[in-house]
Amino acid sequence: MVKFIFSSFTVLVLTLAVVKAQNTPIVVSQYPKINEVPPVNSPEVIAWLKEIDLTGAPTIPLHTGNPPACPNPPIANECYWTCDGCAADDITACAAPNTWGLTFDDGPSTATPTLLDYLKTKKHSATFFLIGSNVIQYPETVKRELAEGHHLASHTWSHHALTTLSNEQIVAEMKWTEKAVLAATGLKLKYMRPPYGDINNRVRFVLKKLGYIPVDWTGDAFDTNDWQMPTMSEATVIATFTKSLDAYAKGDKSKGFYCLEHDLNSLTVGAAQKLIPLGEARNISIANVAQCQSDAQPYQAGGTAPMPTVSGATPKTSGTPSGSSAAPSTTGTGTGSASNKSSSAMTLQAGLVSAGLAALAAVALA
């Protein structure tokens, strides 16, 4: 199984980023109410709205419900992923062949550190789609995610279905989360996942104005259904996802897939520790979104911390991703690739680890 590793330069710069970010304390009282859609008349949101032009946004009626029911009949030209299966230019599959794009939604939570401990032992890097309301409650966990080589992305402020919100409310949901993560890490998010996968052309328009790239998952087969526990048993979750992995392993595997998993509670985290070995046993590589998309700059410009330099994963000729990567970087939408690490580079990396950067660098051999 191919693993991903940091370059020594990435580790050093990332260390600086985390240290600098720690100088910006999060004061919960300065943020909107937890798990509620932020008001759009606050000074912060008014200022954010002045920075973008929402003129020309598609006129599509707001849906109702959380999550909303599918409109009947469907709305013309809506391109509603949840109900129509229309993804437009959302990212729906890992671009690297034979690769599981490992993602976790809804955190951070009190269960997230257990998941981080596990991923550290396995030397895997994941993308965490963060809820802003949780970021301000557990900023140290977010800092740890970044320090241990994981990729951070947005899952909105309150986890409300975005097609039910006005354009201005979507801006508030995204920017408050962005502000919280910026305070915790010094980095400005670039990727996002809509709660419930609830996205249409109007929502996409607003997200793109804010510089965000939506990442869905690769269809129902790759929804682990961990969110249904305990109503659904863990055994059923594992059995169902095993079938999906078997079907994928028997296919051409020219593209990877993104799963839907959660670091919401001990049940979902416990399930993840049983699901990941199933992919390993089928020789499926595991990577985060930045690695999957070979994005060397998976954060937006405008952060307060030094931009970590991260090489995107470069697929080998045999069809498996390799090279250096793990922790994210910043700037617009550029992409990059990594050369394979030589044995001497690995030796240098190991030396850095022994020098005191073990908390940040994960060196793995095939």
From TrEMBL:
PROSITE patterns: NODB
Biased composition annotated in UniProt, kind: Low complexity: 311-341
GO cellular component: membrane
GO BP annotations listed: carbohydrate metabolic process; fungal-type cell wall biogenesis
Domain NodB homology: 98-287
Highest taxon above the source species: Eukaryota
Name by which UniProt lists this protein: NodB homology domain-containing protein
Listed GO MF terms: chitin deacetylase activity; metal ion binding
Keywords from the named record: Hydrolase, Metal-binding, Signal
InterPro entries: Glyco_hydro/deAcase_b/a-brl, NODB_dom, Polysacc_deacetylase_ArnD
Residues covered by region (Disordered): 297-341
Keyword Hydrolase: yes
Organism: Podila verticillata NRRL 6337
Signal peptide segment: 1-21
